[in-house]
Design a protein that fits this description.
The protein has 210 residues and is of the alpha/beta class. It has helices at 16-30, 51-57, 64-75, 92-101, 134-139, 142-157, 176-209; strands at residues 2-7, 34-39, 78-84, 108-111, 114-117, 123-129, 162-168. It has seven helices and seven strands.
C-alpha cells in the first residue's frame, strides 16, 4: 500500500504544519506503509501553468516533472494534504500544483459531453491550519463553503469521493498542550484511515488467493 503526502508551508521546519507532517509520516511508517512526501516549497515546485502546457494537456502532452507527479498520485491509496488556509484558499504553490497536476486526461476526461473523474477508489485526508477560530467559521457557514469548494467540490470532480478534512484553528495563540492534542487527533485520523485501507487490501488479497 502507498501513502502520498503533499505538504505546502514555506516554514518547512519550524511550523506547526511541519509537526503535522511529521506525525502523519511517522504514523504511516509505523504500519510499514510505503510513504512518499512531496514538500512543494523544498522542491521549489513551479506553480505557474503556461498556455502551451495547458494546450498540451488536451493533446496528451505532459511535461516530465508532471508525469512523475501523476505516477505518484496514480499509485497512491491514501493521499494527505497538509497546508495553511490563506485568504480562504490554498497557498499559491499548492493551487498551482493542483492546476498543473490535475490535468485533463489524467484527473478527468470528457465523455458524451460530461466530465468524468478518473481518480476513483482513493482515500484522501486533509489537515488545514487556520489563524481564526473554527467555531466562528462554523457559525457563519464558512467551514461548509470551504468544504464544498476546496475539499469535496474539487476532488469529487476528479473521482475521489472518500475524503476527510480537519481544521485546526487559533493556531497562533494556542499553547503547547492544545497543539499536542491536535497532533494526537492527526495520528488517530491517519491511523483509522490506514487501518481501513490495510483491511480492505487484506480482504482483496485473500479473495485473490482463494
Amino acid at each position: 500500500m502507498k501513502h502520498l503526502i503533499i505538504f505546502a508551508h514555506p516554514n518547512g521546519q519550524g511550523s506547526f504544519n511541519r509537526s503535522i507532517l511529521d506525525r502523519v509520516k511517522s504514523t504511516s511508517e509505523k504500519r510499514a506503509v510505503e510513504t512518499q512526501v512531496r514538500d512543494l516549497y523544498q522542491l521549489n515546485f513551479n506553480p505557474v501553468i503556461s498556455w502551451n502546457e495547458l494546450q498540451g494537456a488536451n493533446q496528451g502532452i505532459t511535461p516530465e516533472e508532471i508525469r512523475y507527479e501523476h505516477q505518484l498520485i496514480r499509485e497512491a491509496d491514501l493521499i494527505t494534504l497538509i497546508y495553511p488556509l490563506w485568504w480562504m484558499g490554498f497557498p499559491a504553490i499548492l493551487k498551482g500544483y493542483l492546476d498543473r497536476v490535475l490535468s485533463h486526461g489524467f484527473a478527468y476526461k470528457t465523455e458524451n459531453g460530461q466530465s468524468v473523474g478518473l481518480l476513483q477508489g482513493k482515500k484522501m485526508q486533509q489537515f488545514i491550519t487556520i489563524g481564526s477560530n473554527v467555531e466562528k467559521y462554523q457559525q457563519f457557514g464558512i467551514d461548509k463553503s470551504l468544504r464544498d469548494c476546496l475539499v469535496d467540490g474539487l476532488f469529487n470532480f476528479c473521482g475521489i469521493k472518500d475524503i476527510q478534512h480537519k481544521f485546526f484553528g487559533d493556531i497562533h495563540i494556542i499553547d503547547d498542550n492544545a497543539r499536542q492534542k491536535m497532533l494526537e487527533e492527526v495520528e488517530q485520523i491517519t491511523s483509522q484511515n490506514l487501518t481501513a485501507l490495510l483491511s480492505t487490501q487484506e480482504t482483496l488479497n485473500s479473495k485473490e488467493s482463494a
